[in-house]
Specification:
This protein is α+β, with helices and mostly antiparallel strands. The protein is built from four helices and five strands, in the order E-E-E-H-H-H-H-E-E. The chain has helices at 41-51, 58-82, 85-90, 93-106; strands spanning 8-14, 19-23, 32-40, 107-109, 115-118. It has a three-stranded antiparallel β-sheet, covered by helices on one side. A two-stranded antiparallel ribbon has the order 4-5. Strand 4 (107-109) and strand 5 (115-118) form a beta hairpin. The model has no long low-confidence stretch (mean pLDDT 77).
């Protein structure tokens, strides 16, 4: 059904901004919306390759972006003491979370966010 080179297809997208193709002669499945007009299978696949540059579902992208922003805002004082500002800006949300997770074990902080001392109970690599 999806490999007929002579059939026309639609590019379809769901709420998570994930793309697929669908035979234009068939009713769209629930949760999917057509993007553009019917076209050849190869044209649909070419379009998807051009526009779908981030394969992560929308909810995952938003959660990571929000988590990275919240972590960065809440940890700015501590991070500014430990990491160069340019290095911090270049970090992905994943790298930032990993670094913050390791900081919790490596150092002890005062109520004002200042580093008190290295944590003597932290595991060393």
């Amino acid at each position: 059904m999806f490999d007929d080179e002579n059939a026309e297809y639609l590019v379809v997208i769901n709420e998570e901004e994930q793309y697929s193709i669908w035979p234009s002669a068939r009713e769209l499945p629930a949760g999917w919306t057509a993007v553009g007009e019917p076209r050849s299978r190869n044209d649909c696949l070419d379009h998807i390759e051009r526009v779908w540059t981030d394969m992560r579902p929308k909810s995952v992208r938003q959660a990571l972006d929000n988590a990275g922003s919240l972590i960065a805002q809440g940890s700015h004082m501590v991070l500014s003491q430990l990491v160069d500002a340019d290095e911090l800006k270049a970090m992905s949300p994943e790298e930032l979370r990993e670094m913050l997770a390791s900081l919790d074990d490596d150092v002890l902080y005062g109520e004002d966010g200042d580093v008190i001392e290295p944590n003597p109970n932290a595991e060393t690599e």
